[in-house]
Amino acid sequence: MNFSANPYERSSAEAANEWNHVYAQHKGSLYRDRHWLWAIFPEIFPLPPHYKGDLDTRTFVCHCGKVTAISSALVNEVNMHGLNLRACCCPVCEYKIVYQSTYVYTPGRPTRGEEVPFPPRTGNFWVLDIGCGTGSLAFPLLEKNSQVRLLSLDYSEEAIKVLKSRDRYSEEMIVGKICDITSLPNLSTICAQLATQFTPSPVFYYATMVFVLSALKDSNAVKTAISNVLSVLTNNGVLLIYDYAEGDYRERKFSVREQSSHNCLSMNQKNYYLGATYLRGEGTRATFFYLEALKELCSELGVVHEALVRTKEEYNRKTRERWVKKYLLIKVRKPSHG
């Protein structure tokens, strides 16, 4: 493949090839399964047995159109193992997300790294998993939520190969496909094909983009990707976005490294200045977004119900170093007339 002279101007196909190299080298070890996503996406991830009120989101955005404060959405529930748990429930349509993992929770017993069978499916609640990688969102979700099925998309062929090679992969619950999310015909074709595989035809109530937008070429690609995803959601469907935010410690590292090369380009389109884009060593992109700028862009495409920066401070006891991680969380709804 012939690459563009300016690495920041590489096409989606060229960027996919960079990710292919990354996934071919690291296989399934590149990203750990993200069991912590319940803290930001309670709309699809059940609250775990060890939940103690430590959510990093303020709202529960239901696919029926109702937005509820987390404190008002919490209910008591008994799960399949007889555990008394907290769960999020919409007060209007009574959509409820209950922790249904086949793992039997024991207080004080570590669970990290354990893989358990998926619980039997109890529904056909479809989630669109954009930039799925090797299943770091899909597998934890299927472990804990028996209602969901997933269409998992990534533009890296190698990522989809690794996803499909995982032991618990089954197209009864998760369908992995190669897709350039900036191409609406590509996305629409895949959704149409899925409708021939399942009865009833899949309806997408939620979509997720976790560290997806930061890998795209520019603000035009970001806007196109968001628009395309919203277009295939059901009316009032919700897109859940999580990505790097301005001020993250990694941005400062990139800035110092590239200060003299002047190849740190901003994402610009018309009056948009979404953030600064850097290249990792293997050629993949990382953009650190301004919250208000990305929120404004999303507001042009749908209804933004929540937009915040999640800050995590970490400390290395050995080196006595502290660093701050910053991420943005945005929940945007497809208008009922859209």
TrEMBL record:
<protein>
    <submittedName>
        <fullName>Methyltransferase like 2</fullName>
    </submittedName>
</protein>
<dbReference type="GO" id="GO:0032259">
    <property type="term" value="P:methylation"/>
</dbReference>
<feature type="domain" description="Methyltransferase">
    <location>
        <begin position="127"/>
        <end position="267"/>
    </location>
</feature>
<comment type="similarity">
    <text>Belongs to the methyltransferase superfamily. METL family.</text>
</comment>
<dbReference type="InterPro" id="IPR029063">
    <property type="entry name" value="SAM-dependent_MTases_sf"/>
</dbReference>
<keyword id="KW-0808">Transferase</keyword>
<dbReference type="GO" id="GO:0008173">
    <property type="term" value="F:RNA methyltransferase activity"/>
</dbReference>
<dbReference type="Pfam" id="PF13847">
    <property type="entry name" value="Methyltransf_31"/>
</dbReference>
<keyword id="KW-0489">Methyltransferase</keyword>
<dbReference type="InterPro" id="IPR025714">
    <property type="entry name" value="Methyltranfer_dom"/>
</dbReference>
<dbReference type="InterPro" id="IPR026113">
    <property type="entry name" value="METTL2/6/8-like"/>
</dbReference>
<dbReference type="GO" id="GO:0008757">
    <property type="term" value="F:S-adenosylmethionine-dependent methyltransferase activity"/>
</dbReference>
